[in-house]
Specification:
Blueprint (H helix, E strand, L loop, with lengths): L1 H7 L17 E2 L6 H9 L4 H12 L3 H15 L4 H9 L4 H16 L4 H17 L6 H12 L4 H14 L4 H14 L4 H14 L9 H13 L10 H16 L9 H13 L3 H11 L2 E2 L1 H4 L6 H18 L23
Helix pairs in contact: 2-3, 3-4, 4-6, 6-7, 6-8, 7-8, 8-9, 8-10, 10-11, 10-12, 11-12, 12-13, 12-14, 13-14, 14-15, 15-17
Length: about 350
């Protein structure tokens, strides 16, 4: 993390076909707004965190607010003095309550008694969300709590209705709903993709929720072990989810921390689909930014796993240049190459 802080201000973002050296790769690096806030938190100061989250709330920047609150809660798991002071000084601050609720849920999630612990805190988490006005982000925490507490469908649907009433296209809440559907409706991967595709189609062109089908494809592939018919879902639907995510990735600058998780997840899915050339392009666009998810699913060392994947992709592309899998040339638009494609 310290390396990420030191490099944040001085990073160049060149568009190049070469991958950054292994020593320059950063795991879960904060962006230019979050980095100084984490540095201050490490010194025990909460004021920068309060200012950052207040701005996201006042400007209705829900995706940034969700990401920043999640990262601050993760930091507080090992260094919570700044959050403790913030809560003591301003017990009713909605931004402090947001981080504190996320921290509580994250801590309970790793406990063997997770279900019971989350059932105990669920009323307080929901009450905090209800008190947050039009902010949808606390409802993402409430939805995650409900999933961990094994809440029934009726209760989850009630929470979901509250979330989408505040923001119909908030990515985090949609991910929470997708994960609930996958966890408590076994064998419904078609339904998961239906839900994700509908949400993506209804969203604005630049909305992050347009990446939801990719998240559903990831669930299908990891449940079914990969292959052409993962979890009973036709390969064409998985390819379509990846192609839409490629278009979304292309709309963001290269080597930018904001779309890093999208690109890391997209790389993972493309590799499971054996589309090595497309995966290589996402690795280039990712630049130095590695996210723990999804690589921590396969290894205790997500950074090491990512670097291994990069080496494997380079070797695969060198063996089969111009293809995205064994004998399957593709156009630059994600479709099969046809006469006249250039």
């Amino acid at each position: 993390m310290l390396r990420a802080f030191l490099r944040t201000a001085a990073r160049a973002r060149p568009r190049t076909s070469r991958l950054v050296p292994d020593d320059d790769v950063l795991l879960d690096a904060p962006d230019d707004h979050l980095a100084p806030v984490l540095v201050a938190a490490a010194r025990g100061e909460y004021t920068p965190a309060a200012g950052l989250l207040a701005r996201t709330r006042e400007n209705a920047e829900w995706e940034h607010r969700d990401r920043y609150a999640t990262r601050l809660a993760a930091f507080a798991r090992s260094r919570s003095e700044w959050l403790d002071d913030w809560r003591a000084t301003a017990p009713g601050d909605p931004d402090a309550l947001l981080v504190d609720a996320r921290l509580t849920v994250d801590r309970h999630w790793d406990s063997p008694a997770r279900t019971e612990l989350l059932r105990q805190v669920a009323p307080a988490v929901t009450a905090a969300a209800e008190a947050a006005g039009g902010d949808p982000v606390p409802w993402r925490t409430a939805l995650d709590t409900a999933r961990g507490a094994h809440a029934g469908h009726a209760e989850f649907e009630r929470l979901w209705a509250e979330a989408v009433r505040r923001s119909p296209h908030h990515y985090g809440c949609h991910v929470a709903a997708l994960e609930y559907l996958a966890a408590f409706s076994p064998g419904t991967h078609h339904e998961c993709l239906d839900f994700a595709e509908t949400a993506a189609q209804d969203a604005p062109e630049d909305a992050l929720v347009r990446a939801l089908p990719l998240r559903a494809a990831f669930a299908c592939l990891t449940a079914g072990g990969g292959g052409s018919d993962a979890a009973g879902v036709p390969r064409a639907r998985l390819d379509a989810a990846a192609d839409h995510a490629i278009a979304l990735s292309a709309a963001h600058p290269a080597a930018d921390p904001w779309p890093a998780e999208l690109r890391n997840l997209l790389t993972y899915v493309l590799l499971r689909l054996e589309r090595h050339q497309d995966a290589a392009e996402q690795l280039r666009l990712t630049g130095p930014y590695v996210t723990s998810f999804p690589w921590d699913r396969d290894a205790d060392d997500p950074l090491g796993r990512f670097l291994q994947v990069r080496d494997d992709v380079r070797a695969a592309v060198a063996r089969t240049p111009g293809t995205t899998g064994p004998g399957r040339p593709r156009s630059g638009h994600g479709g099969r190459v046809r006469p006249g494609d250039h």
